[in-house]
Amino acid sequence: MKTVSALAFGLAASTVMALDRPLYGLDYDTRTSEWGGCKSYDTFVADFKALGNLPRHIRVYTTTDGCIQRLLDAAGSQNVKLWLGLWGNIEPEKDAYPSEFKTLQKLVKQNRVRNDNVLGIHVSSEALFRYYQTDSWSNRTGVNKLIGYLNETRSFLRANNINIPVTIADVVDSYRAAPELFDHVDVVSINQFSQWEGVYAADGVNVLFDRVKEVQLAARKVGKVLLFSETGWSAAGNVTAIKEATPASSAVCCHINDTPTYLLVAL
Predict the structure, then answer these.
(1) Tens-place pLDDT, residues 44-67
(2) What would you report as the CA-atom Rg of the chain, rounded to the nearest whole angstrom?
(3) 132-166 burial, b for 16+ CB within 10 Å, e for fewer?
(4) Which residue ranges does UniProt annotate as crossing the membrane (predicted)?
(5) How much is the pTM?
């Protein structure tokens, strides 16, 4: 997860509007730092005001009790719609799904989460990618656990007349390795960063669609929408694996038409 500030939002807004790039929304971190915390109500409001004319859709990673209520209040005051996330993980010591699902249930019962203010929800973000770096895909325990979370969340929402899409957000290779996901998710939620593929930003979109073409075809076969839940390009930094990281390269990368796309913007 990345920490996003109002300054980063301002940069994103000016860059996207200047280049006339279509954009569905922005990924957003509610934390005060990578170690935790929760931004203040005023910080949330300032960040949302910095969106300017960008689509007022924000995707978050966690539904932490106390913080999520503050975020919902701020989003409501600024006409911002949220895509919620539950921090589900396969390893029990990292798994916040049980507590965050309880928070979600409370919010629904309190009419704080509704069809008109929440766009969708993912029950995990790259949990499969992290777990299966050290375990074999032949062990389907992790996949089945997350599918169970998805089914539980969706069943609860539908029972309360909440009809937003529910999904598992992960990288291309996870969807390839676990094709059963296509039948279970409401939308196919992919995180893909072409900057890690050893190419220049000008080739970023071509590489992105080349990487996802197999997943896109599989999604179409089951009648599911493909959602780019995380993408983008670094605007600064000196990681050797990334060939260029400037505001200009960050702007060039993200011309994606006709596919709902969340851009990850961070300092």
Answers:
(1) 999 999 888 878 899 999 999 999
(2) 18
(3) beeeeeeeeebbebbbebbeebbeebeeeebebbb
(4) none
(5) 0.85
